[in-house]
Write a structure and sequence with these properties.
Number of strands: 23
Strand content: 35-45%
Structural class: mainly beta
Largest sheet: 7 strands, mixed
Oligomer: single chain
Shape: elongated
């Protein structure tokens, strides 16, 4: 049995232009980005000498729309790339899905592929806390196909199609077997000896939904007593447009097992935490890869860059994670805190293993068309 390839379809209000997309997510592998490709079907009698253009725009919203008063504007919209689809001046070979669509849809079908710049930011949405926010916060991509005499014309809604797409990153194919570890210590005034703590993770890269295992070794060489231990996963978010940085706790566990740790004693303990978007619905500012009400929404993946580049030079919204362990020594003794960074990402799915969007397609009449609603990764629909 051949599995059908799902193709998303959306038609302009006047019914003269239809856009077909084989996928919604376009992968950034840190060295290049897959083009936003698909097929359009247009009525040549309607065009009357005009041209068809496909453009990708990114909207960077870093403030709520209801707060835009007295001329303030908390969003920036940039047109990243535009391609003329008809008449076509693109010499690239179409993908297998595009070829099959063109053959199936007839002579008025034209393939297109819009290449995104390598510096374009990844799609990230910030959870505003409102169930029905007017416009989502974060980095939002849209593919617009419209009819006009030139690419600088403002599209009319009646003869244009707008589709939401996403620029995503998956974990590197060559996994890193390194086990992150950190050692911290603290001395106390008017007291000899130090409190030492070593935190070790079983690996550096975790997938969404996996347990993050932290092994803690505590050596109390001081004269203070450790009263309790708190372990938490911290999401670090940097909004580059406003140079604003903040953190959110996405998973935590506090324990008094093995406590109090008296002077001269040791303790080894393992914490298992699972950071999930579903357990943080009430927290505002959480960085997600989509709307929280989507059934397949996850926490935003860690931002990665090509080798030799600094992640702090990335654009858009930069996301990172760390394991934070805190030892409480009482009101006078204070806390001893250790932060250990790690990466949280999606694995590379089989359908994305190839550079072009051909994988999973074996040819033949195995195309399944679906109307383009507010779909995410072809699996969930926004609830009304």
């Amino acid at each position: 049995m051949v599995n059908a390839v799902k193709v998303f379809k959306k038609t302009a209000p006047n019914g003269k232009i239809t856009v077909y997309l084989g996928r919604r997510d376009f992968v950034d592998n840190t060295t290049s980005t897959e083009p936003v490709d698909g097929v359009i079907v247009c009525d040549n009698d309607y065009l009357r000498g005009r041209k068809v253009f496909a453009s990708v725009t990114v909207t960077y919203r870093f403030g709520r729309e209801e707060d835009e008063v007295m001329g303030l504007n908390f969003s920036k919209e940039m047109q990243l790339a535009t391609q003329q689809v008809y008449p076509s001046n693109d010499s690239r070979e179409p993908t297998a899905v595009q070829e099959r669509l063109v053959k199936k849809l007839g002579a008025n079908a034209y393939p297109f592929a819009v290449t995104l710049p390598d510096t374009a930011p990844c799609s990230v949405q910030l959870h505003s806390g409102d169930d029905e926010s007017s416009k989502p916060l974060g980095v939002i991509y849209e593919l617009r196909v419209f009819v006009g005499d030139n690419s600088d014309e403002k599209p009319h809604k009646r003869n244009s199609v707008t589709l939401a797409v996403r620029k995503v990153q998956f974990s590197p194919v060559a996994g890193n077997k390194r086990q992150p570890s950190t050692l911290v210590s603290k001395g106390f005034a008017l007291s000899s000896g130090k409190l030492n703590m070593e935190v070790t993770l079983d690996k550096e890269l975790y997938y969404h939904g996996e347990h993050v295992n932290a092994t803690i070794n505590i050596n109390n060489g001081s004269k203070k007593t450790v009263k309790n231990i708190k372990c938490s996963v911290i999401q670090h978010v940097e909004v580059t447009m406003t140079n604003n940085q903040f953190t959110r706790e996405v998973a935590s566990l506090e324990s008094k097992e093995g406590c109090p740790i008296t002077p001269g004693t040791n303790l080894q303990k393992t914490f298992n935490l699972t950071p999930l978007a579903s357990s943080n619905k009430s927290k505002t500012g959480i960085a997600l890869d989509g709307k929280l009400k989507d059934t397949d929404a996850n926490l935003a993946s860690s931002t990665v860059v090509a080798a030799g580049k600094n992640v702090n030079d990335a654009c858009g919204i930069i996301v990172s994670y760390s394991m934070r362990v805190k030892l409480n020594c009482g009101a006078i003794g204070g806390d001893l805190t250790a932060d250990l960074p790690f990466k949280l990402m999606h694995p590379v799915p089989g359908a994305q293993a190839k550079v072009r969007g051909d994988s999973g397609y074996a040819g033949g009449e195995d195309l399944e068309f679906e109307d383009f609603a507010r779909l995410r990764r072809g699996m969930s629909v926004d609830q009304p």
